[in-house]
Amino acid sequence: MQSRTHTCGQLRASDVNKEVKLVGWLENFREVGSNLGFIVLRDFYGTTQIVVETEEMMKVVKPITKESTISVVGVVRERSSKNPKQDTGDIEVVPSEIKVLGKCRYNELPFEINHSRNADETARLRYRYLDLRNPEVKKNIVLRSNVIAALRKAMTEHGFMEITTPILTASSPEGARDYLVPARKHPGKFYALPQAPQQFKQLLMVSGIDRYFQIAPCFRDEDARGDRSPGEFYQLDMEMAFASQEDVFAILEDVLPPVFAKYGTYNRASEAPFKRIPYLESMEKYGSDKPDLRIDLTADDATELLSDVGFEPFNDNVIKAVVVSDFKESRKFIDKTCEEVEVQAGNKVYWFRVDDNLEIVGGISKFVKPKKDEVIEKLGLKAGDLVLVCAGKKTLAQKTSGVIIKTFGAKVPGHMDKEQYSFCWIVDFPMYEIGEESGELEFCHNPFSMPSGGLETLLKAERGEIDPLTITADQYDLVCNGVELSSGAVRNHDPEIMVKAFELVRLCEDDVKAKFPAMYNAFCYGAPPHAGIAPGVDRMVMLLAGEDSIREIIPFPMNKNAQDIMTGAPSEVSEHQLEELHIKVDLPEEKEEQ
Asked: Region labeled Aspartate — which residues (predicted)?
């Protein structure tokens, strides 16, 4: 027990009359009279009330500043006024000795420890070590530790070997900006911090490792979002040799639900098998490749139904309709919520309702009324339904319908079963797409996924027998409550298939060898079919904790500008350090203010 007999969360009525020694932080001191005061002593495990009853002890306690660390030796007694909200609320300690172990040298704290979550975010990040003293903040870090331990235990029990892969590696085009590290012994050359252990884990499969995993740090120089921390993040990285998509699904469907059910804010989680939704169907039906299946709303294609009603925004556009049943909210509610959708989607939302007499009223009803019977039949409408409609090019219409579903589903009572973790797999991603800037065929997602149908499918596309845009990849995303937890794939382990896949986007074998030499060469030595996935640990814990910001579950997070304002990172370095690395800093000149 280190320098204590008990923790501040441990003592109970059964400990009455014991002499104990406690250590911790002086959270609060309340002076009731000249010879009576109450200390709240806090450590990692909880709080205990210390009762000061003598003039001598009052002289010791009064000069001690809040948040100083102290040790208390005393006798446990039963409290006359118990506190049922506190684990140690049946007892208190009468001290015979109090010593200061570490003095807090400031009378004013940046914020009240137990209310730190109400403080300015900059202050919380600058004094994160104080923020973490708040039990409400600390519990997320404890949760993170417990979840990682549970994941590690489950993966080991499923026969996976934990292997750490290099942090200093070579730069490779993986979609985000690299963090570069200058190589002192190799002037002008740089290491890169890994965006993911992708190549290394595939090389482990070639090496003969059958099942690999690690809690992997990943580094990407990208902007922050609510569910994405800038700089670094962690993922449960895994790969399996001689494996298919079904093998990967079986592992995660066995590993994740118990963890979510045990540690989550909600105690319900999807059971295996998780629902599988093809990518194109997900975009059509849910307006997103990250559907939140806790919401029962879906989108219908109403292009053929409403394109000829004489409403100008519908002309020559894809039209999507979302039906909200049993709608009882006001016109003001509709308008306000539609405005929220429009801000998020960048597209206009229209509406009409079906009244108790099955008449179409409100919004754009005058354009829809002439086709009332057909509209009611095709959309399956009944009295009390609200119909939300959007139009635009296909991707914009789909995106807008997705925002409608998410926004109205969360706000209209009865359409979201919130208190659960609802998982699904998004499958059958397109292998290729037409690039917005280039106007030419490009990889849609991961270029190293195995094309469905293998080499024969690629050869058919090359011969013009099929459209390359119809080729799907053996790639999959794991989604939970509208949050993408992970992407994974059956890997393209055959050099011949890999080269052919790249040839369709105008890259030859030499390009593949130059960009990915280690992986290409390794695959030429007999690579096993393999597949894997890497659920994000940070996002997982964020969902389990019920937090909206990922910074709440990271011990020492950066701010939105990728700065650690507690340590001052990133920071300038000395000229001597730059000279050792053969680096010269050439900053753009600041423009003079007009």
From this structure: 198-201
Give dist(CA 453, CA 474) in Å, integer.
9
Q: Any known ligand binding at 474?
A: no
DSSP 527: P
Binned at pLDDT 50, 70 and 90, residue 1 comes out as low
Mind giving me the DSSP string for 147-212? HHHHHHHHHHHTTPEE----SSB----SSSBPPEEE-TTSTT-EEE--S-SHHHHHHHHHHT-SEE
13-102 to CATH, choices 3.30.365.10, 2.40.50.140, 2.130.10.10, 3.40.50.620: 2.40.50.140
Q: Is a pLDDT exceeding 80 seen at residue 573?
A: yes
Three-class SS state of 440:
coil
For residues 35 and 30, give the distance between their C-alpha atoms in angstroms, rounded to a whole number: 12
Beta-strand pair 299-301/275-278 = unpaired
Report the relative pairing of strands 275-278 and 423-430 from DSSP bridges: parallel
Our measurement of the distance from residue 380's CA atom to the centroid of its chain's CA atoms, rounded to an integer in Å, reads 36
CATH topology of domain 136-272+534-554: BirA Bifunctional Protein; domain 2 (3.30.930)
Smallest CA-to-CA distance from 509 within 500, 518, 267 is with 500
Task: Render pLDDT for 494-553 as a digit per residue (tens, 0 to 9).
Answer: 999 999 999 999 988 898 888 888 889 999 999 999 999 999 999 999 999 999 999 999
User: Is 220 assigned a ligand-binding role in the annotation?
Assistant: yes
Known binding residue 484? Answer is: yes
Residues 369, 396: Cα–Cα separation, whole Å = 26
Known binding residue 445? Answer is: yes
- Pairing type for strands 530-533 and 231-241 reads antiparallel
Measured between alpha carbons, how far is 64 from 92 in angstroms, rounded to an integer?
20
In the chain, ranges of CATH 3.30.930.10 domains: 136-272+534-554
Q: For position 594, what pLDDT does the model report?
A: 46
Would you give the DSSP letter of residue 3? T
Q: Tell me: is residue 268 an annotated ligand-binding position.
A: no
Nearest one of 226, 308, 310 to 548, comparing CA atoms: 226
The predicted pLDDT at position 230 comes to 86
> Span 295-411: which CATH code?
3.30.1360.30
Residue 231 has a pLDDT of 87
Q: Is 536 annotated as a binding residue?
A: yes
3-state helix, strand, coil in the chain (%, to 5): 35, 25, 40
Residues of the chain with CATH 3.30.1360.30: 295-411
Considering only residues 416 and 587, tell me which one the structure prediction assigns the higher pLDDT. 416
Please name which of 462, 433, 453, 460 lies closest in space to residue 494, comparing C-alpha atoms. 453
